[in-house]
Automatic annotation (TrEMBL):
NCBIfam families: a_cpa1. Keywords: Antiport, Cell inner membrane, Cell membrane, Ion transport, Membrane, Sodium, Sodium transport, Transmembrane, Transmembrane helix, Transport. Its main location: membrane. It is found in: Cell inner membrane; Cell membrane. Residues 13-415 form the Cation/H+ exchanger transmembrane domain. Gene3D superfamilies: 6.10.140.1330. It is a multi-pass membrane protein. This is Uncharacterized Na(+)/H(+) exchanger YjcE. PANTHER family: SODIUM/HYDROGEN EXCHANGER, SODIUM_HYDROGEN EXCHANGER 7.
Length: 548
């Protein structure tokens, strides 16, 4: 019962954080950590021990799958060079540099444990970055690189973390064996993700053949996909992390959605958005819940001569070390890319000092780091405590909070002025796509309307009247995307008036349905069916209004 109450309370606070984020100007992850810390005091009587493997299974697959699915695939391919440079090269550079720095700064942490902490701190969190600073303030190229990096370094960092933890548990490490195991884990993990996607597609095909299957059953197949990929890879000793990422990356372009009905598609997208928000929020609230205990029970090895100041300075120094390593690697990569471009007689596109600094500060740590560090085992195979577990959890939690705080304060100031004012490239692309799609629709409708012989029993002129009505709507959409500001303003005003009248008509429909239900002219089933249709129509209209 305590566990159930605990889960419900955490979910309530996740929902509260979403509402409060609209009222206070605080980044959502920071707000959720603060709410978790505020929640910790009244819940001191509730103690929940989380099994590390279960924790990793519950949180990692859906978070990685969601991030991978939402990543901009075209930009990932176009920027694959700098993304792979950061997602793989910087991860190993961070593991070595930060691992030795931590062992030197805190000698009580064994080197192999320090390397494990460095590995789990190497993944960055682009979701946290986008909650700190508006995407329109950060150059699009840099934001795409950060998103691609955070997607791939989750996999590379957590794979290396698993190797480091295994080395701690076994007490031995072979570079040659680890390299072969790493290659096996990567290759088979990718194949496991592809296989899981194939199995999901076949399952959806089977459900379609059966016919009459509820949309919820199709949605469940999509929800299970990342867990199947993760567990399948882990079962054969490969990387479940890479399997979940692969499944997420390939889902959008695989055509699997053609096996889903319209209702199932809407439910799947909505549910994944909700799950991503819930899991991210729950992780940060869990961090906040542990924060008072972490602060109140600082490991003696970190307290030293100054019990309050020394742990804070240690965390700050380690956070600045991560930023410095990142800045150094980005600068070297930027200079190397410029040299290669000149040698190949191509135009170089250097980032510049401020963009490199913004990219360094933007490498905040978040949910994946927290999930990984909390998955550390409690004991060694012989039953003795896992070495320095409390210290590395304290340091990881401190670095997450410190990196978020530094980014919250510094990133908006560093990024200010980096993006020239004007229409966002993504918005311009969307506007052109809307015009092209509307023109294609008009051409198709006019070709259908031009058919001379209609179906038997068709009312004369009905086809042309219907086509004119539909084409008029598409022409208004084209006018609203016109380059001329006057034409666009006139079209927007006409669209606004039409939208107001449609929404007023929907309100009248809803009131009429409720009145008929109250007067018992219709039953509750009819009422629910009509109100569902009205609500879906209203949602579509509100979506149009929000885009305008």
């Amino acid at each position: 019962m305590q566990v159930a109450i605990f889960i419900l309370v955490v979910l309530v606070f996740v929902a509260v954080s979403g509402a409060l984020a609209r009222l206070v100007r605080v980044p959502l992850p920071v707000l959720q950590i603060a709410l978790g810390a505020a929640l910790a005091w009244p819940m001191r009587g509730i103690h929940v021990e989380i099994d590390p493997e279960l924790f990793l299974l519950v949180f990692i697959p859906p978070l990685l799958f969601s991030d991978a699915y939402g990543a901009p695939k075209r930009e990932l391919v176009a920027l694959r060079g700098p993304i792979l440079d950061l997602a793989i090269g910087l991860v190993f550079f961070t593991i070595v540099g930060f691992g030795y720095a931590l062992h030197w700064l805190v000698p009580s942490v064994p080197l192999v444990v320090a390397i494990a902490l460095a590995a789990v701190l190497s993944p960055t969190d682009a979701v946290a970055v986008s909650s700190i600073v508006d995407k329109n303030v950060v150059p699009a190229r840099l934001m795409h690189i950060l998103e691609g990096e955070s997607l791939l370094n989750d996999a590379s960092g957590l794979v290396m973390f698993r190797f480091a933890v295994a080395a701690v548990l076994t007490g031995s490490f072979s570079f040659a064996a680890a390299s072969l195991t790493f290659l096996y884990a990567v290759a088979v993990g990718i194949l496991a993700g592809v296989a899981a996607l194939f199995v999901a597609a076949k399952a959806l095909q089977l459900l379609n053949r059966i016919g009459g299957v509820p949309a919820e059953a199709q949605v469940l197949v999509m929800i299970l996909l990342p867990f199947v990929a993760y567990l399948g890879a882990e079962h054969v000793g490969a990387s479940g992390i890479l399997a979940a990422v692969t499944a997420g990356v390939l889902t959008g372009g695989s055509g699997i959605f053609r096996f889903l009905g319209v209702s199932a598609r809407i439910q799947t997208m909505s549910l994944w958005t909700t799950l991503s928000f819930v899991f991210n929020g729950a992780l940060f609230i869990l961090l906040g819940l542990q924060f008072p205990d972490i602060i109140g029970n600082v490991p003696p090895e970190l307290s030293g001569r100054y019990p309050v100041i020394q742990p804070i300075l240690t965390v700050l120094a380690l956070t600045l070390c991560l930023i410095a390593l990142r800045f150094l690697w980005i600068s070297i990569g930027d200079i190397a890319a410029s040299v290669v471009a000149r040698l190949r007689k191509r135009k170089a596109e250097p980032f510049g000092l401020r963009v490199r600094l913004a990219g360094s500060v933007a490498g905040v740590r978040g949910a994946i780091t927290l999930a990984g560090i909390l998955s550390l085992p409690f004991t060694m195979p012989d039953g003795s405590p896992f070495p320095a577990r409390d210290e590395v959890i304290f340091l990881a939690a401190g670095v997450i909070i410190c990196s978020l705080a530094i980014a919250s304060l510094a990133l908006p100031r560093i990024a200010r002025g980096l993006v020239e004012p004007g229409e966002d490239a993504g918005a311009a692309e969307e506007r052109l796509a809307r015009v092209a799609a509307a023109k294609a629709a008009i051409a198709r409708i006019e070709s259908i309307a031009g058919v001379e012989d209609g179906d038997e029993g068709e009312v004369p002129g009905a086809r042309l009247a219907a086509a004119d009505s539909i084409v008029a709507g598409y022409r208004r959409r084209i006018a609203a995307s016109d380059e001329a500001e006057d034409a666009r303003a006139e079209a927007r005003e006409a669209g606004r008036l039409e939208l107001e009248m449609r929404l007023a008509g929907i309100e009248a429909e809803r009131a009429a349905v409720l009145a008929m239900f109250r007067s018992r002219e219709i039953n509750d089933h009819t009422k629910q069916a009509l109100l569902t249709e009205i609500t879906l129509t209203e949602a579509l209209l509100n979506g149009r209004q929000a885009r305008k």
